[in-house]
Structures are given as structure tokens and as C-alpha cells.
Recover the amino acids of this structure.
């Protein structure tokens, strides 16, 4: 049963040990508070039966030959990377934002690459552990978190120099059965509704920091795991039901309070030289994912802004045309970076293709620095109504509804309900808790823009550019 239904997924969540806390109380994974965030994941299961998405969503396991959801697959060719990027763009269109499930795809691929490289150099058996875990993950169509970002404490201090060593997750005990880990991971998207936490280091480490060089998978309800969540959803609708309002998200602090992990689920333990490689390999995959999902956000902003301009009768105004064109450039430039990253991918010793780091970083950086500008364009074109429109209850109230219908009008021929729907959507999308989440995610998710700049310049051949300038200037070497 390599392909599960959304119901299978929800049923297994219900069976998990309650270890989720949200907004002041301990909740079950069937708590209504989580319904909208879980809907986003349900979409990723339903999408394999959607005629428009099916071909992108389905691929075959290289381990078993069975048909699997692409979100559980490895990238074993350039074509796989193209398909990943396109799948993310198309899926994000449907849920109106982040589909969330790509995090684990990127982590699995990164662990697949680096566990093999550790084995190649050290004669360990991490890659075999990984492949066995992947077989289980694919066979059960699982959902994983990426538990990478440590709490980090004092940003000036290395993990070993923190006041409390637990501010970066680390190994506190090892024996013949496995390891015990302690610490917490921050910002973990989907924490309350994943099957597994996939843990990787967040940074490069030194020889003294071997205890922090650890990667593993644990069931999300394992003994000692606590998930402290923040749920964000769009405002509920009454009659003007809309697809955008069906989906939400939850992020979390995931605490690992002396959690036991058996060796067969450990993919790195002590190999400090590979910690940075694992963190950056994940970053490369995830920034490539952003080159698919961020253009989808641009598409949504662009579509909403163009429609608002059309309803307002200003779609031909030169400044509107110009601003919409700018959005087209941003979205397609980011997407093109992802294509370039895939086209220049490297085949690693595991057989997994890693996207070219220069281009995945360039794309993610362009996306990150433009996110507020894109919302700015939507805001300017939509006018102030998304922030002041009286709530749906007033539109439905027979005493006030007729006023709102008569006075909220734009170009003749546009039905008032369409206006109410569009401006409510723009309000939910750009002037709400969900919008704030999306903007912060757009800047920091996958790494803040400064991290991409560091990634771009670290491998950049600046000397060759100086040589070009010297030659043109007639400067002798
Ligand atoms: C919505 C959302 C979802 C996320 N989901 C996940 C997830 O599922 N899994 C996961 O692992 N992570 C996730 N992240 C984490 C994301 O990768 C981090 O937010 C990002 O790496 C920045 O880390 P931080 O938030 O701790 O910021 P900080 O580390 O506090 O950095 C903030 C700023 O401080 C400066 N700074 C920080 N450290 C230094 C330093 N040493 N020297 C100089 N300047 C410094 C930089 O300017 C940086 O931009 C998510 C983030 C967001 C916003």
C-alpha cells in the first residue's frame, strides 16, 4: 500500500500518543484547531487522483518499483528535479500557499546524499539505515518534518560555547542499542501532524562538537518528544466559502527530552566534518524547492492584483501594467533559477542529483528579498478595501447587506458578490495572520537572505572575474 489516502493519514494521526500542545493546552491530533493545517497535507494525498496533477504527483520507488507519491521520492535525475519544482508550483496554486510536505522530501534527499558520503569515507553503515528507513517511509506514504533549526541561543556563540549545551540538539548517551538525544528544534512546520521527525544539524561543526553532529528519524510521538505549536488559519467563512479558506499551517518548538533513537534510525552520529555538508545539502534542495513554491505565491499575488485592477477599471493604467510586469519578472526569474539549478545538477555517490548550489541560492535570495515588495504591489493596486471591508456577517445581515451590496461597486457588470469574494480573498491573503506568516516564511523559510548571500559567495569564482577585468584593462598578471 505504497499510496495512502488522506483518510489513512488522518486515522494514523489519531492513533498517536498525545504529545502536542497548542495555544495553552494539550490537544489530540484530532483537535478541530488542527483541521485546516491537516487539510493542507490531505491535499497532497488527494492530488495523486487529480487528473491535472496526477502525472506530476506519481513516480516509482527505485527501491521497490512501486508507484509512490513524489513527495516521498529521491531525485535520481535532472528530470526528477524539474518535476519536483513544477509539482511544488502547481500544488501551491491549489492550496494558496505552502504545501509544507516538501520539507521532508528535501531532508530525505540530503540525508541520502550525505549518509553515503560518510560511509564512503568512514566505512559506517548509515546509508543502509537510511535506505531501510526510506523503504518504510515510501511503503506507508509517510509525512515527515524537517527538524533542523536549533534554538541557537546566543547567536555569537558556537554550540559548545552556549550557556546551556541543549540550545543545540546533541547526543547525551550512546550504547549498543542506540543513542539518547536532548535539545529542541525551533520553527518546525507541521510538527503536530507529521508521522516522523527527520532531524539534521543546522550548521558546520568543529572537532570538539561531535556530540552535536547527529541526524536521525523518530516517530513524532516517541517517548520524550513534546510539540509546542502555533496554529495559523485564514478567517472562517460562512456562506462565501472559498478554497483558500480551507487550508492552514502550524509551526512548533519540538522538544527532545532524552529521546532514545535505535541505531537503525541514526544517519550520522559524531561525524562533525559532515555536519555542514548535511545542513548545506538540505539547504540546496530546499532552496531549489523555493524556486517552485515562491513563483506560485507570485502567481497568486499577480492574479489577484490583475483581477482587482480589472474590476476597478484601471487595468490599462501605465503604472498598473508596469507593476504587474515587475511581478512577472520576479516570479519567472526565481523559477528560471530553479531550472538552471536542476540543469547544472551534480550526481552524487548515492545516485541522488543535487541542484547547483549557486542557482538554488540565487533563486531563493531573489524570492526572499522581493516578498514584501510583491505584497506592496498587491496592496497598492487593491486599494484600502482589503483592510476595512466589513465582515461577512454584515454582508449577510439583511439590515446591512443591501448597503454593502449597493455601495461596494466597481466597473459596471461586475457582480457585487464577485467583488466581495475577491476583496475578502485579498484581505485573507494579504492582510491577516496568514499573510504575516507567509511573509515571514517568504523571508526566512529555507534560510534568511543573508544565508543565501553567504552560500553564493562561498563557492563563487571571483578571481576569474578579476582576470576578465584585468585583461580588458590591459593589466599584466
Ligand atoms: C514560517 C517559517 C517556517 C519554518 N519552518 C522550518 C522548519 O520546518 N524546519 C526548520 O528546521 N526550520 C524552519 N524554519 C526556520 C528557518 O530556516 C529560520 O527561520 C532561518 O534559518 C533563520 O533562523 P532564525 O529564525 O533562528 O533567525 P536568527 O538566527 O535569529 O537570525 C536572524 C538574523 O540575525 C542575524 N544573525 C543570526 N545569526 C548570526 C550570526 N551568527 N552572525 C551574524 N548575524 C547573525 C542575521 O541577519 C539573520 O537574518 C522556518 C522559518 C519560518 C519563518
Amino acid at each position: 500500500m505504497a499510496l495512502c489516502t488522506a483518510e489513512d493519514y488522518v486515522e494514523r494521526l489519531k492513533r498517536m500518543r498525545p504529545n502536542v500542545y497548542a495555544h495553552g493546552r494539550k490537544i489530540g491530533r484530532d483537535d478541530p484547531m488542527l483541521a485546516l493545517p491537516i487539510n493542507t497535507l490531505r491535499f497532497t494525498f488527494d492530488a495523486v487522483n487529480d487528473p491535472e496533477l496526477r502525472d506530476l504527483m506519481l513516480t516509482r520507488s527505485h527501491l521497490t518499483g512501486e508507484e509512490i507519491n513524489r513527495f516521498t521520492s529521491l531525485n535520481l535525475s535532472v528530470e526528477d528535479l524539474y518535476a519536483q519544482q513544477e509539482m511544488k508550483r502547481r500544488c501551491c496554486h491549489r492550496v494558496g500557499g505552502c504545501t509544507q510536505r516538501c520539507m521532508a522530501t528535501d531532508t530525505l534527499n540530503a540525508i541520502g546524499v550525505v549518509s553515503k558520503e560518510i560511509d564512503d569515507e568512514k566505512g559506517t553503515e548509515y546509508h543502509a539505515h537510511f535506505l531501510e528507513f526510506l523503504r518504510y517511509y515510501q511503503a506507508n506514504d509517510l509525512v515527515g518534518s524537517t527538524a533542523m533549526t536549533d534554538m541557537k541561543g546566543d547567536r555569537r556563540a558556537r554550540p559548545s560555547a552556549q550557556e546551556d549545551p541543549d540550545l543545540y540538539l546533541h547526543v547525551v548517551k550512546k550504547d549498543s542499542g542506540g543513542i539518547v538525544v536532548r535539545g529542541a528544534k525551533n520553527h518546525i512546520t507541521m510538527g503536530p501532524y507529521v508521522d516522523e521527525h527527520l532531524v539534521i544539524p543546522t550548521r558546520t561543526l568543529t572537532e570538539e562538537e561531535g556530540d552535536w553532529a547527529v541526524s536521525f528519524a523518530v516517530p513524532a510521538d516517541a517517548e520524550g518528544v513534546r510539540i509546542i505549536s502555533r496554529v495559523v488559519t485564514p478567517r472562517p467563512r460562512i456562506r462565501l466559502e472559498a478554497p483558500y479558506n480551507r487550508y492552514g499551517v502550524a509551526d512548533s518548538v519540538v522538544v527532545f527530552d532524552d529521546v532514545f533513537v535505535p541505531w537503525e534510525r541514526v544517519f550520522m552520529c559524531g561525524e562533525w566534518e559532515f555536519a555542514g555538508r548535511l545542513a548545506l545539502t538540505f539547504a540546496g534542495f530546499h532552496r531549489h524547492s523555493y524556486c517552485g513554491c515562491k513563483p506560485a505565491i507570485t502567481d497568486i499575488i499577480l492574479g489577484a492584483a490583475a483581477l482587482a485592477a480589472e474590476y476597478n477599471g484601471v487595468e490599462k493604467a501605465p503604472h498598473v501594467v508596469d507593476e504587474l510586469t515587475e511581478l512577472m519578472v520576479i516570479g519567472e526569474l526565481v523559477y528560471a533559477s530553479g531550472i538552471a539549478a536542476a540543469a547544472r545538477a551534480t550526481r552524487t555517490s548515492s545516485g541522488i542529483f543535487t541542484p547547483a548550489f549557486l542557482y538554488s541560492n540565487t533563486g531563493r535570495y531573489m524570492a526572499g528579498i522581493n516578498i514584501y515588495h510583491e505584497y506592496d504591489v498587491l496592496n497598492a493596486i487593491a486599494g484600502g478595501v482589503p483592510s476595512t471591508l466589513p465582515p461577512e456577517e454584515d454582508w449577510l445581515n439583511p439590515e446591512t447587506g443591501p448597503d454593502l451590496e449597493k455601495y461596494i461597486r466597481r466597473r459596471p457588470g461586475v457582480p457585487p458578490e464577485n467583488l466581495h469574494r475577491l476583496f475578502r480573498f485579498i484581505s485573507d491573503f494579504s492582510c491577516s495572520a496568514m499573510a504575516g506568516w507567509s511573509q515571514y516564511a517568504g523571508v526566512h523559510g529555507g534560510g534568511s537572505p543573508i544565508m543565501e548571500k553567504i552560500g553564493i559567495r562561498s563557492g563563487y569564482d571571483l578571481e576569474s572575474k578579476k582576470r576578465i577585468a584585468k585583461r580588458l584593462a590591459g593589466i599584466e598578471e
